Amino acid sequence: MSAASVNTTPTSAPVEPGEPARAAYLRFTDVKKSYDQQVLVVKGFSLDVAKGEFITLLGPSGSGKTTMLMMLAGFESVTSGEILVDSVPLTRTAPYHRNIGMVFQNYALFPHMTVAENLGYPLKIRNLARAEVERRVGEYLDLVKLGDFGERYPAQLSGGQRQRVALARALVFDPSIVLMDEPLGALDKKLREQMQVEITHLHRDLGFTVIYVTHDQSEALTMSDRVAVFNDGVVQQCAAPNDLYESPSNAFVADFIGENNMIEGEVASLGDGTAEVRLKAGAVVTARIGDVTEAGEPCIISIRPEKLFIREDAPGYENEIEARFSVRHYVGDFIRYYYHLADGTEITVKALNDAAAPKVTVGQDSHLVWHTSDCFAFKPL
Amino acid sequence: MARFPEYYTLWDRTGIYALRAVAGLVLFFLMAPILVIIPLSFNAEPFFTFTEGMLAFDSEAYSLRWYGSILENPNWLLAIRNSFIVGIAATILATTLGTLAAVGLANSAMPYRRLITALLLSPMIVPLIIIAAGMFFFYTRFNLVGTHLGLIIAHAALGVPFVIVTVTATLAGFDRSLYNAGIGLGASPMRAFRDIVLPIIRPGVISGGLFAFVTSFDEVVLVLFLAGPDQRTIPRQMFSGLREQINPTILAVATLLVLVSGLLLVTRELLRRRSDRLRGV
Predict the structure, then answer these.
(1) Are residues B28 and B98 both part of a single domain?
(2) Which domain holds residue B47?
(3) Per-residue pLDDT tens for B84-130?
(4) Which of A6, A9, A167, B159 has CA atoms 20 to 30 A from the CA of B237?
């Protein structure tokens, strides 16, 4: 991980002791945005981005992630806070001098220009010689595998081809930062996965810095160096994809990223890194401390469905709970089992579809077991 | 005849035929006075009615003499020249100002948008005679009465609302992210407007310009008030021609005007189709 330091919440600004103070390439300091001077859409965004990093802003719609992009691009003003690029405040630069490439959700290709003219436009503005413009346009068209499409108009292209043109146009003028606003949202699943791979390749080969906005978590997890999970105008957690999945910092992230079983309970006691939790269903289990702070407070524990096992005899597992089987969903590569706890909470168990896949009958009671290291105790949402 | 769905009753069918008949009559009343002018302008006799020879399709009864007489009459030639000078100048002025106004009014940050729009569109609604009278007194102060410039400004004021309406309509379908994309790629606001906004809204601009031209081209009330003998335009000349020199020259001119208007309409339609195709509709 190349980032200097990560500040995930507006209130705390942890500075790692001993870490050398390195100026980040792109730095957001407590950025706030309000459209009506009353409601904050972005409530204090702080983040350091290293040069060449691929950062994704992930969140449900209306969480303020697109607004962040618009402020970076200069289409929206910054209400308060600061955005620095190479230690220079970005807001002092006019939007058309920022040298930031942007891929719009609807591609925003100029309909009256051919593909080649679209790509050549930023170069023409920069007064490049005609031969140089042609050379670069050709080079980038080849890069996105559209070498023969230069003379076509955007209306004559398919969605995936338009997407590539938009991508090439955002890269052709060597921007310092590339912004992508849900660029794959309008493509079908197969094309989307293909474009994800291509964008990852381009990023690796050309080394530009990316701020990517999406509400699709698999897209965020597969492509990014780090993902900032947005909700309600606040970054809930900013971490590498595996950290985000394996050690979420609060209940929102645990619930938003991937699938999770959320079981309500109450903190019985706090130990060193772990907490004893009395579940509403009765059992007492041990969980890693997420963000619970004191004994006696209500909490929820989260366990991923693939970390739960259906075992009658369970040596080696710290936790177990009694549950009643209700439905089995055959998905193909795995099987999903739905259980109910004594208090009615629904629990999902995911098991690989192999010879060891358990056979259960409706209404049967089973023991579900899991490791303490796979479950977390969080404050309820 | 289109086949009716089987569930149509006799009443439904009668209603449909009645509707078609009424629609046909409306069309007839709109078009007949215009269409009847065209054959009459080829009359060999100085009459405003069909001669027996014309009705019998006798080629002797038709001639181009009234078209020739346009070219021989210096009054008509001056009028045609004036009409084009005033029309084209007023169109350029109205198109430029109207487009800029529409772009400004399309910006949601613009204060008092509705009020300003209403003021700018008022020449479409206020009775022409009132505008003419007001302009006459106002222009007298600036010695603009009886000048080409005065007539051009007056006609431009009449044309601006058409340009605003058509350009505003085109701008409503304009995707603002295209403009933003231009800015993001490095174009200054002026350049982004010139390179991206203007080419895309061009059909609206041209359409508005054509309306402005036609408005000026057939306008007679303002000309009666503001023009001197040197600024006589085609409609003004027709107006006096109707009373002074009773011969079908006026019909020949009218036919030419119908032709010009028709060509303008066709141009507009072709431009609209072209822009639709570009947008991939």
Answers:
(1) no
(2) 21-61
(3) 999 999 999 999 999 999 999 988 888 899 999 999 999 888 999 99
(4) B159
